[in-house]
Design a protein that fits this description.
It contains 4 helices and 9 strands; from the N terminus they run βαβαβββββαββα. It is of the alpha/beta class.
Amino acid sequence: MQIVIDCKDYGHPVDVKGVEEFAGLVRDVRAHQGSMVCPRGFTKSARKVARRANIGLYSPADTADRTPVEMTVSLDVMGRRYFGHLPLAEIRGLRDEHTGAVHTNAFTTGILSAVEVENEWQRLVGNEEPLAPVALLIMGLDCIAIEGRRRSALAGRA
């Protein structure tokens, strides 16, 4: 399989001409897939041309540049299931310019509060499906009860 990747370090979004030239190169070398990367992204018309030519478009995604990122999560706590948004403190990867998805192999989450989950997340009952596709499934323990037992156990030994 032959894949052609073109990285542009432009100070502006890649336009239609840039995508058309790259699509021609992909056809000329008979590559199976072509992908372009540009930190400034791509114009709307360039994205349309790329979609028709089956060209992947990506721009770097990095929380250091304050790119807003949100992840949908399903959380199972003591047989209760919740669905909500988990804050991401850091993420680096490539943003798919067609779908908006970020492809990454590493990220750091923010703090997840049990109280916030209970009060602000959607509780899923039975086989109820979440409102959006789940990106991450977390299995958790009831930390409050564990802490309570630990304190009781430690107090009993004293």
